[in-house]
Amino acid sequence: GHAEPLVPYISDTGTKPPESGIFGFMINISALLGVITMYIRYLLIEKQNEASHFVRSSCNMFSLCIGLMGCIGMGIVAAFQELSVPSVHDIGALVAFGSGVVYITLQSIISYKSCPQWNTYFVCHIRMAISVISCIAFIPMIVFASQISMTKIHWTSGEKDYTYHFVSAICEWTVAFGFIFFFLTFIRDFQ
């Protein structure tokens, strides 16, 4: 009963105790795992690049830095709860989602550049599709969230700003799952 049952924002699921502690802890663990995954991906690209020079090392480093910014944004989301410090929480979420979308797009481009020696075109197409869907969902997520005039957890249909909340929340979940599915495409590379 602490969050809207239909489509809450991700942060709505961890705003009130006791789930707030678990939410913050798991977001920080996820950010740490993201840092580790991105760093391993960075090292893998660097090693592959020594043999075939398919991308500039600075591009790979830039992608890593953008990804790390996203993980810092996740840490901000975990540290500053939605209802306690909404402006800082929202900035953290914007950094996390914005940097994440840029990171997966850059990684999709790097993947195409490494074809066919280090990646299959099938994997590249999957990564790019996930990136495009995430980019498309990111825009209405921000646009509709910015139209909401109040910060609250429990929404009912017909309420002022409910449609903005509903569309924005669906887009937020779409982008978040896009990140998860994108990272899953690294499994074969990491083997």
TrEMBL record:
GO terms for cellular component: endomembrane system; lysosome. It is a multi-pass membrane protein. The chain crosses the membrane at residues 20-40, 61-79, 91-110, 122-144, 164-187. It is found in: Endomembrane system. InterPro entries: CWH43_N, DRAM/TMEM150_Autophagy_Mod. Keywords: Membrane, Transmembrane, Transmembrane helix. It holds the Pfam family Frag1. One of its GO terms (biological process) is regulation of autophagy. Residues 5-191 form the CWH43-like N-terminal domain. The keyword Membrane applies. It comes from the Eukaryota. Coiled coil: none annotated. Belongs to the DRAM/TMEM150 family. This is DNA damage-regulated autophagy modulator protein 1. The lineage of its organism: Eukaryota, Metazoa, Chordata, Craniata, Vertebrata.
